[in-house]
Specification:
Helix content: 25-40%
Oligomer: single chain
Shape: globular
Largest sheet: 8 strands, mixed
Strand content: 25-35%
Distance between the termini: 15 Å
Length: 186
Amino acid sequence: MTRKLVITENITLDGVIENDGSWFDPTNDSDQGRQLAETTRAHAAESDGFLVGRTTFEEMREFWPRQVSDTTGVTDHLNRVEKYVVSRSIDDPRWDGTTVLRGGDQLEAEISELKKREGADIVLTGSISLAQQLLGLGMVDELRLFVYPVVTGSGRRLFTPDHDIRDFALAESRSIENVVLARYTR
């Protein structure tokens, strides 16, 4: 059995996943934030691989390992799983449990090899360009979209006009207060 590659993104109603800091906070300690964290922890328990691009990796490497009172569970999860960063410029990731993938022309082969290995899901979050590339290559097995009732009017989007996602079917839809989790599988 091959591992699934899952894209998990927070997304606005108009399809933006780029967070300008005004509509999504992963450390939100409200009732909704705690419910979202609980859902994220449940999803994280199904994975043992975390895939990101260089920019997201560097942002996360500087933030999550420094969290000492993390109630979201993200720090514990990232310390537990194998991390894969796609980068042509990183040689020393400076984060235990990280493997550097070179991407480019090798991306499809590298991800195929990861999916063939024994293990649980590999989850990609953030990493807009990488997510778009993997969607374009048809390598994504599941989409988990946390849809926020926000319209930003601008920002980078997950889907481009050339992405054909018609072979994804809705597997789950539920609300977490005013956020909707829409989960699609191939």
